[in-house]
Amino acid sequence: AAVGLVVSVGIPSAVAFAAVQRRLWRNLLTLGVITLGVVIAAWIGSTVFVLRPVTALVRATHRLQAGDLAAARTELPQGQGELAQLASAFGEMAEALGQREAERKRAEVTLQLLSRRLLEAQENERRAIARELHDELGQSLQAIKINLQTAQRYPQEGATRLAESLKVVDQTIQQVRTLSVDLRPSLLDDLGLVAALEWYIDRQAQHVGFDGQFLATPPDLRLDPTVEIVCFRVVQEALTNIARHTQARRVRVALQQHAEELHLVIHDDGVGFDVPAAQERVLQGESFGLLSMRERVELAGGDFAITSSPTQGTEIRVRFPLHAAPRLDPPSFAAAHTATA
Asked: Is 310 in contact with 283 (CB distance < 8 Å)?
């Protein structure tokens, strides 16, 4: 009979699966390292490209809310992408708000200057009228009273005293007329702007000693009363400044209608002045002459500009749309080539 032979060989499971286990652990370790790297990269990326820009935008928003517009713009993130576009739009908004805030502050300064100027002008006008009444009219009336008292006491001197009194009365009448004209010329209401300017320029030329020229086109031009009084006051202030400061020999004033616009030009050949320096004096509250002219013009709906330089004379240009309604908003002060002397 055949005898069966069975051979049994045994290998420990640890030995049999050792290579497989090592490969498995190696793969798991590699996968873990890769996963950790991805997580760290995602965290860094989200922090740098998402969280940090968003945090910067939040800080800029808080600064903007607090009114610190300049610091709000410096907080904005730089870069590309949608967040950068959002930051750029936010920066433009902050810049626009900053400009409006600066304009508002300039308007406040201008209004304060004008309010102070108004009070000073009222007091100066009252002081001038009081001085005229006391020094001129008061003395004239006193002289008339003395002459009449003398004529009453000494009848033989009556004719002489009455003649002197009549002369004083004539002088007083002329003084009253001059005072009335300085306050508001009747020619402006009766005959219009052209006649009033022609009379006033001729009067100032004779009084100051310059060669005054006036051109009006058309010569029978009549305008809205508001525009007429503003134009007259501008010329009045300009000629006053010329008499005080410029040493001009020739002054030219042109009033011309061009289609739907009125142009007023005042030019002198005087010493001129530095426009930016004059602007600084206005901001410091030292001078208001041309500022008052500019404000008059702009509040009546017009545009005011002045060009000047030392030794080159001065030219003032005023433009009015003839059918424009007066502006009620306070005009900004810092306009190109606008100043006061």
From this structure: no
Where is pLDDT greater, at 106 or 329?
Answer: 106
Amino acid sitting at position 195: A
How far CA 35 is from CA of 24, 25, 29, 45, in Å, comes to 16, 15, 10, 15
What are residue 22's DSSP bridge partners? none
User: 281 near 288, Cβ under 8 Å?
Assistant: no
Residue 47: pLDDT band with limits 50, 70, 90 = low
Task: Specify which residues 106 forms β-bridges with.
Answer: none
Q: Which domains does the chain have, with CATH numbers?
A: 13-77 (no CATH), 184-341 (3.30.565.10)
Tell me the two tokens of residue 272: 């001129």
Tell me the mean pLDDT in the region 145-167: 78
Q: Which residues contact 205 (CB under 8 A, 6 or more apart)?
A: 211, 212, 251
